[in-house]
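fyi for ur records
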Amino acid sequence: MNFNYSGTGVALVTPFHPDGKIDFVSLKKVVNHVVAGEVDFLVALGTTGETPALSKHDRMEVTQAILEANAGRKPVVLGMGGNDTAELLDYLQAFDMKGISALLSVTPYYNKPSQEGLYQHYKAMLSATDLPVILYNVPPRTACNLKAETTLRLANDFKQIVAIKEASGDMQQIMQILMQRPQGFKVLSGDDLLTLPMISLGAEGVISVIGNAYPKTFSDMTRAALAGNWEEARRLHYGLLPMMHLIVEEGNPTGVKAAMHVQGLLQNELRLPLIASSSSLLSRIQAAHSKY
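which gave:
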């Protein structure tokens, strides 16, 4: 399937039953909802999917369920990262990659490696897979920032590294990458709120959270911005802005699951240590949703 690593990707949530088991019926419903919303690609096993709380067996089952529900309609990117490089290499070789278009790999978390350590980590990762790799930089979660210089070094040295999901929130760093990147290397927003301004600076798209709940509106905003239709893009951006603020108020994916629960897409259940939204937030999300 042709995939140019741009447009709107959605980091899919993982629905659960009240007993903590994966709700595969709702997962299929979510995939169909997002695909019908005309997104450009799907992301399995991202942060929004509560992947740290999934066992290896769970991860394989969730991935297969997404692939089956998608049925080849959209490219599927697989989250595949970790803070133990050797374990990641073993996992890459053991995981069934049939149907996967690319890998999204977060920087090692908690260890706080140096920039050279990050470079060597990704270099080692490439030895274990032939798939294209999208870097994922999210310092608020990992306590590790992939600096612009290291991103550019990786992008120039390895054509297999095709893009970065930038969620640092550091616009100066993002602009440096955009200004100095090699031809063909894509920059994707990792923050719904910053998608529009990042596209205005030259970014090619987003891997979204709110796209789980409002895929059509958010995809239309991204497409309008990429086409240079700024008036329409701003209209859609500001229309979703109240909800974008609400869904991050108690963390991710707590808020977006509440918004999806309001729509009847899934039960409002998360796996510990994450918990469902407060009744106050749920009420405000219901009120905001009623305006859509």
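The first strand starts at residue 7 and ends at 11. thats all i got for now
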